[in-house]
Design a protein that fits this description.
The protein is an alpha+beta fold and 139 residues long. The protein has a single domain (8-137), classed as Hotdog Thioesterase (Thiol Ester Dehydrase, Chain A). 19% of the residues lie in helices and 44% in strands. The protein contains three helices and six strands; from the N terminus they run ααββαββββ. Strands 1-2-4-5-6-3 form a six-stranded antiparallel β-sheet. Strand 5 and strand 6 form a beta hairpin. The longest helix has 17 residues, at 54-70. The chain is globular, with a radius of gyration of 15 Å. The protein starts with 7 loop residues before the first helix and ends with a strand. Keywords: Hydrolase. Pfam families: 4HBT. Belongs to the thioesterase PaaI family. This is Hotdog fold thioesterase.
């Protein structure tokens, strides 16, 4: 775990001037082995047919899994980076917000595996993703 305390405000500061901020992703909650966030379904996240872009769902999933992984290592010596991600798109969404919860399935010394479930405001499944993260030494 991080040597310095992490707050939700700190995590949301990490979004500044990144794709995460551009897509409107907000981090809403985190704890031991999980992290939650939300993303608007609007002009920033639509595909040409007016639906939530699958790539935006994957961006939300990777954001949550990556940040979740990074808050569970000693950030003075380690960093977590995406190694592989997959996603199954279950339902389309045209507007509103989608909500993601990433949960650690495995937290090893050299890899972590995170599962992210993305749902609508009413709780319907939109996407499920699994991401493998490499835990690397900082140089």
């Amino acid at each position: 775990m991080h040597k310095t305390p992490i707050t939700l405000d700190t995590l949301n500061e990490w979004r500044k001037n990144t794709m995460v901020e551009h897509l409107g992703i907000e981090l809403t909650e985190f704890g031991e082995g999980y992290i939650c966030g939300k993303m608007p379904v609007d002009h920033r996240t639509h595909q040409p047919m007016g639906l939530l872009h699958g790539g935006a769902s994957v961006a939300l999933a990777e954001t949550l899994a990556s940040i979740g992984a990074n808050i569970h290592v000693d950030a003075t010596t380690k960093a977590c980076v995406g190694l592989e991600i997959n996603a199954n798109h279950i339902r389309s969404v045209r507007e509103g917000w989608v909500y993601g919860k990433a949960t650690a399935l495995h937290m090893g010394k050299s890899t972590q595996v995170w599962e992210t479930k993305i749902t609508t405001e009413s709780g319907d499944m939109v996407c499920i993703s699994r991401m493998t993260v490499a835990v690397i030494d900082k140089k």
